[in-house]
Amino acid sequence: MSAGLACGALLASALIAVVGTSGAFVVVGILLPAATLLVLPGLRAADARSQVAPEDVARLLAVPFLGVLTPLVVERLVREQTERWVPADTWLMREGDPGDAFFVIASGRVEVTQHGSVLRELGPGDSFGELALLRDVPRTASVRALTPATFVVLGRDAFLGAVTGVPRSVQAADTHARRYSDLDPEERGPGA
Which among 20, 60, 75, 149 is least buried, having the fewest CB atoms inside 10 angstroms? Predict the structure, then answer.
């Protein structure tokens, strides 16, 4: 910033010496809008590439341990997410599978089971798949679509890069993970 101020002072002095004070104001007055017009197409193109749908951002921010992330990190996650649709009675993951993705339900309902027992039903806005990613263990439960469903899916690297990069998010995710992984199925209750 100091270098920019120094250059501006030198250029202003030179400009005043060449065209006078009034002329310098006219040149600068024309120069700034002209520079803006020159870079405007590039700025518009960059802005168009960076646009994310507000509902996609809101969906991720509604997940408690993603809600503490900065808007910039959440926007990056939105750009890295994929969408997946499945018909009813599709298994999205099974106990023991490797953890490779995190899911947020956009529409539809799923059933979470462990050792054949139903733990809970999840619907739009709910998420699953974080335990295997956060703890680096195989899937601890199975998830099956009860209805046709659409999911926002974050790959392992994108999810862990975002969550583990912010201490508050790590703490919130760990608290969330402990809530589900440290309890017996009977202690979780039907809505847990």
Answer: 20
Which residue range forms the structural domain that includes residue 118? 54-188
- Residue 174 CB coordination number (10 Å): 14
Tell me how many domains the chain contains: 2
Q: Are residues 11 and 81 in the same domain?
A: no
46 and 76 in a common domain? no
Residues 63 and 26 occupy one common structural domain: no
Whether the predicted model's global pTM rises above the 0.85 cut: no
**Spatial CB neighbours of 111, under 8 Å, sequence gap ≥ 6:** 118, 120, 121, 122, 143, 144, 146
